[in-house]
């Protein structure tokens, strides 16, 4: 209170001059450098007020606060554009996935401009930088032995000549007998479903009955990381600012033992897998999308690594 009173008495003339960062905004030696991202909105719909309040507006408020503190601040975001939901929307609207992404990326950008969200850069995940960085991370995981191959049973539509992603399958729920359950979840009883468990499954594209066939996929070998992850988590819990909920969920995963996690999908719309035997597949969106934060920054500046590979700053 005393410090506030003294600052008030000195007047506005005594305040430090507002920091004007260079363009593009890059970390500055000796300054507090803050990189802010908000959750990448999915591209297959028009943003509503809940989307904006849920992540974009709160991050914007923090970015404005940081700038008022004269901290060197970069705020980036963009649309998440790969995956099944985009393919589904494209079928609904009679457009290609790329046309859907172009249409809704423009809508998102216009709405955030109307709300005066102070992004330094608003990008997207369907870019050459996304492909380059995602494939590079994949190659590093492969070279270090953190990937596994395994066979998965999946539904295949012989009429469409394709394995069906969860959202392209509909059938009767094995738990409650609801007749319009999706291949990943039943909207009536809320239970998660493996698509091959559905009774009377149908391809949503052509309404024919798919068959169960084996297909090869790549998995992150997460159990290999447990020994290194546990001590790191304990140190991070002690020194970091984790919420009680985040601690609880993380501990439950560790307690139950990490499981290999599939990172590929039998889709066309996505980042291609650069490995013989898997070149007809793409990366699963949950592997690909978080890399969007890096690639969007890379589209903003070719010196993006100063933000993402610079622990001293």
Instruction: Please state the structural category.
Output: alpha+beta
Q: Beta fraction of the residues? A: 15-25%
Low-confidence spans: none
Query: Which class of the domain at 19-136 and 287-309 in CATH terms?
Result: Alpha Beta
From the 3D structure, determine the CATH topology of the domain at 19-136 and 287-309. Rossmann fold
Return Rg in Å.
23 Å
Number of helices in the DSSP assignment:
10
* Order of secondary-structure elements: HEHEHHEHEEEEEEHHEEEHHH
Gross CATH architecture of the domain at 19-136 and 287-309:
3-Layer(aba) Sandwich
How many E-type strands?
12
Q: Characterize the overall form.
A: globular
- What is the helical fraction, as a range of percent? 25-40%
Which whole number gives the mean pLDDT?
A: 92
CATH superfamily of the domain at 19-136 and 287-309, by name, is HUPs
Short note summarizing the structure:
By secondary structure, the protein is an alpha+beta fold. Among the domains are: 141 residues, HUPs (Rossmann fold, 3-Layer(aba) Sandwich); 57 residues, Beta Complex (Methionyl-trna Synthetase, domain 2). The protein is built from 10 helices and 12 strands.
Overview of this structure, please?
By secondary structure, this protein is of the alpha+beta class. Among the domains are: 19-136 and 287-309, Rossmann fold (3-Layer(aba) Sandwich); 156-212, Methionyl-trna Synthetase, domain 2. 37% of the residues lie in helices and 18% in strands. β1, α2 (49-68) and β2 form a beta-alpha-beta unit. The longest helix is centred in the first third of the chain and has 20 residues, at 49-68. It is globular. GO terms for molecular function: ATP binding; methionine-tRNA ligase activity.
